[in-house]
Amino acid sequence: MNLIDKSEVTKGQHQYHIALKPGDIGEYVLLPGDPMRSDRVAKYLDDAQFVAHNREHRTFTGFYKGIKISVTSTGMGCPSAAIAAEELINIGAKTLIRIGSSAALHEKVKIGDLMISTGAMKNEGTSKFYVPECFPAVPDFDFTNLLIKTAREMTQGSDINVFYGINATDDAFYGETQEWLEHLMKLKLLNVEMEASALYTIAHLRNVRAACICGTSGNLKTGEVIYTKENTKLADAWEKEIHVVLETIYQFEQMNQSK
Fold first, then answer.
1. Phi, psi of 71 (to 5 degrees)
2. Looking at the domain assignment, is residue 1 inside a domain?
3. Which residue, 50, 59, 139, 256, is the most exposed by fewest CB within 10 angstroms?
C-alpha cells in the first residue's frame, strides 16, 4: 500500500486551500485571522498586490523598506491556521507571524494593549496530530525577543502597554466556562487565543520561524469586554501591531545581513 504524504506531494506546487503558488509570497508572512484584516496590512506595503482569496485565506504581497512581505488570513482556530501554515511553507514562507486579537487573563492588561507570546498551552486538538501532548509549543526566540523590544520602543510615551508571557490556545470560544478560565488564571497565563500553539508546532517541525502578537480585545479577569459594539481601541491595536511587526521584520533582516 502506497500511502500519500500530503506535504511532499504538494511541496512547491499550487496550493489547494490558499490558492497560491511559488513566487506569490515573500519569505515573511503575517497571519491575521479575519480576511478583512489582510487589507489593513496591505495599506502598509509598497506596491501591494492582491494575490488570492480562497475560503478564509485572503492574500496580498508587497514590500516594506525593500523586503518582500505577504499577508494571508487564516480564519479562526487551529485547523484552518495549520492548513495555511503548511501550504505557505510549501511555497517558500520562512517566518510566520500571527497578528491577532486576544482576551487578557491578567488584571493589568487593558483593551488596546499589545500581548506577545513566549509560549502556548495546547488546549486544542490540531497539535496532537503532530506531536505528543506533552511536547512544548514555543515561538522563535530571536524573532520574539526583537518583537518585544521593537514593540516597547514604538509604544513608548503612548497609552499602549506591551506585555509578554505564555498564552493559552483554546479550541472553543463559547466553551470556556468560568471554572476553565479560573484554571487558566491560576496557571498565571497572560491571555487566551485560538491559533498560536498549532502555528508554533508546525513551524518547529518544518524548520521555519513563528511568532505571535495580539491586540487585547478584552479582559476576562476584570470583566472589561466589548462584544456588542465597535471596539475602537482594539482596532487601534491592530494598526499598531501591524506596524510593529513590519518594523521588526526590517530590523531582523538588518541584523542578519550584518552577521
1. -135, 130
2. no
3. 256
HEC per residue, the chain: CCCCCHHHHHCCCCCCCCCCCCCCCCCEEEECCCCHHHHHHHCCCEEEEEEEEECCEEEEEEEECCEEEEEECCCCCHHHHHHHHHHHHHCCCCEEEEEEEEEECCCCCCCCCEEEEEEEEEECCHHHHCCCCCCCECCCHHHHHHHHHHHHHHHCCCCCCEEEEEEEEECCHHHCCHHHHHHHHHCCCCEEECCHHHHHHHHHHCCCEEEEEEEEEEECCCCECCCCCCCHHHHHHHHHHHHHHHHHHHHHHHHHHHC
Q: What is the CATH number of the domain that holds 225?
A: 3.40.50.1580
Looking up cell 496530530 gives 129
Domains held by the chain: number: 1
Paired strand residues for 109: none
Cell of 102: 486576544
**Residue spans of the chain under pLDDT 70:** 1
pLDDT digits (tens, 9 = 90+) for 65-121: 999 999 999 999 999 999 999 999 999 999 999 999 999 999 999 999 999 999 999
